[in-house]
Amino acid sequence: MRSSTFPPGILLGIFIARAACGETFDYIIAGAGTCGLVLANRLSADPNIRVAVIEPGEDVRSNVNVTNPALFTVAYGTSIDWQYSTTPQPAASNRTIPWHAGKAIGGTSTINGTQCVRVLIKGMTYIRGDKPQFDAWERLGNEGWNWESLYPYFKKIEKFTVPSTAQTAAGATYDADIHGETGHVHTGFPFSLVNGSFHGLAADTWDALGYPLNEDVNSGSVRGFSTWPQTLDRDRNLRFDAARSYYYAVEDRKNLRLIRGTVKRITWARSSAAGQPAVADGVEYVTTNGELNAVTAAEVILSAGALRSPLILESSGVGNPSLSTSLLNSLGIETKIELPGVGEYLQEQPNTILAYSSTLNLSGSTPYATFSTAQDMFGDETSSIETSTLARIPGWAKKVAAASNGAVEAANVEKLFRVQHDLIFKQNVTLGETLTAVTGGYFYSAMWLLLPFSWGSVHLTSAEAIDAPAIDPKYFFVDFDANVQVSLGRLAQKFWHTKPVSDFVGGSVLPPDGVLPLNATDEQWTSYIGDTLMPNHHPIGTASMMSRELGGVVDSKLRVYGTKNVRVVDGSILPLQFSGHLTATLYAVAERAAELIFEAARYE
Prior knowledge:
Blueprint: H1 8-21, E1 24-30, H2 34-43, E2 51-55, H3 64-67, E3 84-85, E4 98-99, E5 113-116, E6 119-123, H4 131-139, H5 147-156, E7 158-160, H6 165-169, E8 185-187, H7 196-208, E9 224-227, E10 232-233, E11 238-239, H8 242-247, E12 256-270, E13 279-287, E14 292-302, H9 309-315, E15 318-319, H10 327-330, E16 337-338, E17 344-346, E18 350-362, E19 368-373, H11 374-378, H12 382-403, H13 410-425, E20 430-449, E21 456-459, E22 470-472, H14 479-496, E23 505-510, H15 522-532, E24 534-535, E25 566-568, H16 582-602
Helix pairs in contact: 2-16, 5-16, 12-13, 14-15
């Protein structure tokens, strides 16, 4: 096993605990999802390193609802879905909104997708994002985290399949130089691409609205109209989730063990005191039979996702004990490390859908995405909106901070909002995404703002309820977000009423005709959006990688502040939203994390 620099007394205590337990590892990984399985694969590649992965979900390699790309949303509401829901959302007609997350070996990569009434809108999407959004991470205290440092990992993970002649005719375009050819994650375009006639209609219509064709949306600039690849093996028509990509081929390694159970809390060999970091010696987990077990290790890595890793930290005494909220104290949890940012800064994107009848009758799938900048959406008003929103940032920050009951400071939120504002208005990154789809006799649009200023939280509801988080995304808490969503709705509506595609559009189906006329008011749009919005399932930020002073939870080595041997590697560490879908970035982050962990071990 790897060497350690723990003080002799602490090291002896850890080995005694291990001997009593009978289970000892170098690394325990909480969660067999997208990031957790990358780490399990890479770390266990050294036969001298023992790795345990603890995961409550089942093996789904033979579950047709997972393997068949066309059936991805059928798994919603089944045993492989955590079936969460949000707290009541005032801007969404006070609804509690269902929230899906994968409970399986492979995590959410086994079920990711969105369904709207009659059609599968999207799933398994592989889009990286805009370069400046990743460069902004470095501005938040994360030395060495930027587009340039992540780019090699984006290529490393990928095994891209060049589109066929028929797929090219249906709109599949690409730049071979920016894709990987030998990675673990198969990417490409499905054979179910709708025939090229619709692609031409969609491309020509978006072009008429000022959105040119983007040859490859993974170049680091996503603006425009594009056909995006998915995480699948085209020739086998097979979803390539994280387990298929990183686990099944190595599951028989003698130094890699998968334990079925739910990690409940970290156990500590030494608490943080007198300037010394806390030292973890393992975790407690609940077995599938409901028994409480413990396992020990030299290092604990949380990869349970943006909705669960913060809960494990809080259950372990890492979080906010302040007098203004007393979260840990109110739950009867002893504070080990004071990190008020745990569970805060939740950033999620609201999704709205429009549907129309169509005189075309096409089957298949249409992964066509259009990305808009602020200039695209606001036109001549962009400069004035830039000025007015900048002036309102202090007020927004105070509002977000107040809603956290003091867990985050307004000054810190303001700094983060100013970075995001700069990205939107100075660096002209994309602010909205619109999907365009057709199947059978219906046309669809799904749209969402990419960079919300409405930041929420996820927290424990009790010390024992690790599976019942309070998820509060605070949709449209900041009114600018609602304005952007309305603008995206109007853009999608305008698209379907613009030639040449308008020649094939019938009446409105969702909402019914007359609810949103072409001259609909902002109030009508806001009402419809609130009544129908759904999660985009891109939660990030709840254990942010940034300076501790800003409310960060992990440092640039992904180590939890105030600890010697606890890391978080999953979507919770991403500090700002970006104009991509999470999968590509999570794989890249996990690959880089594995190298950082190996590098740290060499110096210990």
